[in-house]
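Have a think about this chain, tokens included, and walk me through the fold.
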Amino acid sequence: MGLITRDATAQLAGLRGGTLSATSLFEAELARIDALNPGINALIEIDREAGYRQAAASDARLAAGTARPLEGLPVSIKDCFDVAGLGNRAGASLFASYRPAEDAVAVARLRAAGAVIFAKSNVPAFAGDFQTYNKLFGTTNAPFDPARSPGGSSGGAAAAIASAMSALELGSDIGGSIRWPAHCCGIYGLKPTWDLVPTFGHVPPAPGLRLRQAADMVVAGPLARSARDLDLALKIIASPLNAEGPAFLPPPRCEEPQGLRLALWADDPFAPVDATVRAGVAGAAGLLMRAGAQVDDQARPASDFAELYEAYALLLHAITAAGLPEAARQRLITAAAQYGPHDRSHAALQARGARLNADDYALVQSRRQAARAAFASFFERFDALLVPPAPTRAIPHDHSADVMARLITVNGATRPYFDVTHWAAFATFCGLPACVAPLPVPADGMPTGVQIICAAGQDRQAIAIAGMLGRLQAPA
């Protein structure tokens, strides 16, 4: 069925137009999963019976003319969100038996909109790695190369979308966990403005610990095969936790490149970028400029990259350490004694973050307020900042036990594994929306993308720019 590989919006049009039924779409999705998932291992729990029940109910609504916005659309969910009737393990053996009785809030909103929620997608242990593998469900492979990872922690989600085994996915992001897999797999992904989409029912924190206040820096957001799908999904899942209606999402200032004000930051001495990624980001800016956008490749927010990253990494590691088993957290705290207060190595930042005290936290917050002010001022002059999603593209599988000893390759030279997070820091630390859009795939067949960062609340502008790039790259 040709529609299976098209975006969610096209599938919904087929359902509304009567050219296919929700049941036939679901059956085609299952056939594709049976054919592809054994080699990719993106989806790790599939409830066929529940999926058929939901699809039949959707067919009844479609026939009655009472279809909801996502009626009959097959949707999978990252195995960090509660889905009633399915497990939520967050890749951790510790949570292997956890089966929630109710949906996470964002999942419930997708279900109420008519989505057929039928599967969970794979994640790394505790959702804490840039690759997707765990002892419970094994390794997820990049759809284009089984020797490479699709990224993490929303790696199963991105691989499922890229291989058309699901129409939409719900992922989460704190260290690039939506953006890095989207970049690796050649799809679209949105890290929304912080607290725009509720993370109530997300693991971590520990199963059953449903925090009414959003966890610091953590966001939930969609992954899809088009920008218009991101916009569709965001309108459904965005709203305060206890809101009765949808959030107000400001429309984009520019729907087309003409009049668009862009800044380009494709590389930096602090965070070197592989030539192929850098060329892709610069190429995206060039496409938009030739279509009428203004592009400034010298403008930068008034915030030191290294200092911002240090503050972000300390907070990131403090948050992630809080979700670790106590013995693991204590090992990190003990290790902090061997590092100086100004050591910016990734191992030092991890240990220092795990031991973050009240004074350190106050300093981090002071730096964050300064960074937010700098970016707010910057976005008074620009509609978006184009940057790399990560320093490199999809990496070979590396499951060596010492994460800090792992390496990535950038321009033929080895770099620390945690450099993957460098370009994720701006948007996460400052609570800004960031959308990754895929770019033309180079001759070696490995996808690459561009990260589009906008001012807080301007999520739909970031999506709109991703959509512009999609249209500019489309075959004539």
In short: The mean pLDDT is 96. Residues 358-378 form the longest helix (21 residues). DSSP finds 14 helices and 15 strands in the chain. The domain at 2-237 is CATH 3.90.1300.10 (Amidase signature (AS) enzymes).
